[in-house]
Amino acid sequence: MNDTGTESGTTAGAPPEPAPALLPQPAPPETSAAPDSTVPPETPAATETPGLGRFLARAAAVTAGLTVAGALLGLVRDQAIAHLFGASGASDAFLIAWTVPEMAATVLIEDGMALLLVPAFSHALARRAAGGGRKEAASAPDADDPVRELISATLPRLFALLSCVAVLLALGAPWVVGVLAPGLSDPGLAVDCTRLTSVTVLTFGLTGYLSAALRAHRSFLPPAGVYVAYNVGIIGTTFALHSLWGVRAAAAGVAVGSVLMILTQLPTFVRLMPGRRRGGGRGPRPASRRRFAGAAPPLLGATVLAPVVIFVVSRQAQVLVERFLASSLPAGAISHLNYAQKVAQMPMVLSLMICTVTFPVIARAMANGDREKARDRVERDLALAGMVVLAGTAMVLGYAPQIVEVLFQRGAFDALDTKATADAMRVYAFGLLGHSLVGALSRPYFAAGRPTWFPVFAMATGLLVTTGAGFALTHRFGVDGIAAANAIGISTAAILLLMGLGTRVVTVRVRAVTLSLVRLAAAAAVAGTAGWLTGPLVSDPLLAVAVGCVLVPVLFLLAGLLFRAPEVVHLLTLTRRRLLHGR
């Protein structure tokens, strides 16, 4: 998550251990000099040096910084849409179309593509290392290179497949809108917006492919910057064209921003990827190359692909259930849910930054058969992610009305919209730990690149719970009932994933991890309750949020000490040591 978190995290429930005992340390000194320096992935684990901890710390800090920048621009984007179109039928129509890039981002950028391709590239890099490394490949370009073979076997097929899906989606937009929101007041506007956003199926797919390849090579800066480029494209296009196209301008901005995501990563991808064989590829190909091009790569076969895709779609389908239920509520309900979810989930997004950076480390450890190293990294990631997301949960619980008022209450977004959004935000907050754990726990399940259906079972169970609870609660509680159903369903999936991890993937200490998270949750409850009680005492919402940004973390840390949460104790011990001794 940040410099301190990456280097200082301990295994949940265990005494602090020095970083070298928990992580592979492969980076030579020069590779940790800059966050986007590429640690040579083909370095065997046996020769790894203690540079990886510092490299991961800097990479996590850069990733978190750019993610925060992208999230802030996302808030500016949402503010612009709220200011121009309010919580109205027009904004609801756009948000139905927004379901396409939202689903595509999860499947093709954030989860699905990463869960498939980071292990695939990690295994290809391990094969390259076993075959002699990059230097030998460069001196004998006619020899097979596993990374080049993987790209040539997957990228053209991916491009063709996603192009077809994007075209079919644009043609079938009326049917899609009818399924997603049968009660929408202006389906024609939603159809137009959906056709504009359908291009993201292709552009997000290419973005996710480049991101996975670069992260496997431990180049984190360009992938972290894609959402900055994306939101810049949306904001610029919306303001430039809204007077002519109305809310359709925002949908066009989604298409423009998605192209900028590709351009952000393409130069680095071209520089890092291996070149063509000498002679332009003419002449007979080696037998292994012929086999690879004629069939799906070993780590990307249908038996591996299917559970990943179904898991990711099941996870994102929670949003589809929410919008289906909200489409029958008064106009603006979908918008209230959207704004509440986007703001409430920011702590969850930040908590997963360390998992994003360390996923290639876990995949490489699994590829090398070092399950103990993978287990230690997973436990540290769960503890760190839990600490970050629960601290953010306390802030959301305490200051939701003030946060929403500062961010959105202007133009067509009035005080009633603020109250409805803030109420839903607070309910969503109870599911933030579940969302963070699902994101963190799903990675080790798929890190080995082998077929595994348990995550699908866990997520499908959570989706079933979400759907049942949604139908039971929406009629009585409206938007808040939908948010509660989301929290209940995702928490169910997280519990199942945690319970199944130790017996199916790596033997994590479930009891110790759970105890650490319970103590952190108790600390978050104390800090959140204090914020809830003191927030209304400050009349100015901006000042109240500023006070909360100081009060909530301080109370969270003090309560964590009181409850003896291991991560809080270790963080404060390490901070004191560095302040006293300068190290």
Automatic annotation (TrEMBL):
It is a multi-pass membrane protein. The chain crosses the membrane at residues 55-73, 158-184, 196-214, 226-245, 251-272, 292-313, 344-362, 382-404, 424-441, 453-475, 481-501, 513-535, 541-563. Keywords: Cell membrane, Cell shape, Membrane, Peptidoglycan synthesis, Transmembrane, Transmembrane helix. The keyword rRNA processing does not apply. Coiled coil: none annotated. It is found in: Cell membrane. The keyword Cytoplasm does not apply. It holds the Pfam family MurJ. InterPro entries: Lipid_II_flippase_MurJ/MviN, MurJ. It comes from the Bacteria. GO terms for cellular component: plasma membrane. GO terms for biological process: lipid translocation; peptidoglycan biosynthetic process; regulation of cell shape. One of its GO terms (molecular function) is lipid-linked peptidoglycan transporter activity. Residues 1-49 are annotated as: Disordered. This is Membrane protein.
